Amino acid sequence: METEDRPPLTIDADAERRLWTLGAPPGVLGRPVVAGGTVYLPVAGGRLAAVDPDRGRVLWCSAPLTEPDTGRLVPVGEVVVIPVQGEYGRSGYVALDAATGTVRWTRIKSDLHRVAAAGSTLVLWNDTYDERAKIAGIDALTGELLWENEFQRIWRLLVRGERVILDAGGLRALDARSGEELWSKGYGSALPEPGSPLPGQWGTDNAAVFHAWKGGTAPELSLCASDTGEQLTATRFPRRALRHFSRPPTLLDGGRVLFAESYGRRLQVYAHSDLATAEPLLELRLARWRFTSFSGNPLCVGDWVYAVAGRRYQVYAARCGDGSGLRPLSATAPDGRAVRLPQTVAGPRHLFLSNGRTVAAVRDGRVLWTTATDTYDSWPVPLGSDRVLFPSRSRTADGYRLHCADAETGRRLT
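Above: the chain's sequence. Below: its structure in token form.
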């Protein structure tokens, strides 16, 4: 893309600390996405910009795309695939060259709107209740249709290397390149690894194994081989203790799982790694208010569990294993503005809070810093374990800035 076609951006960077700020007129930049070691930014005119995560330098800016859905962007080897032309029940896809941003291929229409990367294959499927049946494999470099299949229901999908593991009338695995069924086992729910924002994507998962959850009368978490589906280890869970939880647990790091029930405001954390019977680490219930629920899903960062609940949507924190229970957190910006009605984002080491006007960082149950951003949408995006991206309005209110800030201190370039 020629220089004159790039968005009007200014860059201020500190290479040694890897901090930077992009400045732009209002309405030019959208919410960033971090994928495959690159920061992707939607920019005015339906374009997508790729940004160096260490220096803030714009690497390329694409040609205009039709209603790109950057939040579902998927890097697949040499290309970056973006859903476009969003319509109810249908999607198109555009693949951009990861090095230059030029268009490699386009699929104008598809009735499959979920996407994941499996080696050199793009896997498309649906997860809506009425259309949870079809699945297809696309060559990521050419856009060529490789295979199609259909099941009665596809409840969940997990990627392990070149395999696609489905909960579709029982656990089964498909070869991502050919669509051939490799194995089929009994019922269960395949669980994504911690840190995977989408099933099987961008996490630190081990392609050789996966975890499967079986509820019912004998709750059990199994570690299974992804090439055969065979059970390698199993951990039993107390049925009575889990009677309030209807959904499968969330895998946490450190060999732990989190159970949460929104309306009952219940939390339980168990250790399972190398154990025949799971050991409880945390069991809590916010019973103070009636007719309330968790706002969003509770999150775990390190040894701390965080939940937003109550009529005032207060943030609560509890440490696994110390028995002290949940305690409220209070975040107030330097100008006295409190973070009210917050939403939460978990990073590798920090929890970030935002209410659209203020951003705060929390570590080990303690608020580290809070800053006012004066933007309508100041959703923070973790960048590794030590930095975070968030926008702010310029002091004169005529400009927009995207900061790559220090996650521990909130230090940024202004």
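The chain has a mean pLDDT of 86.
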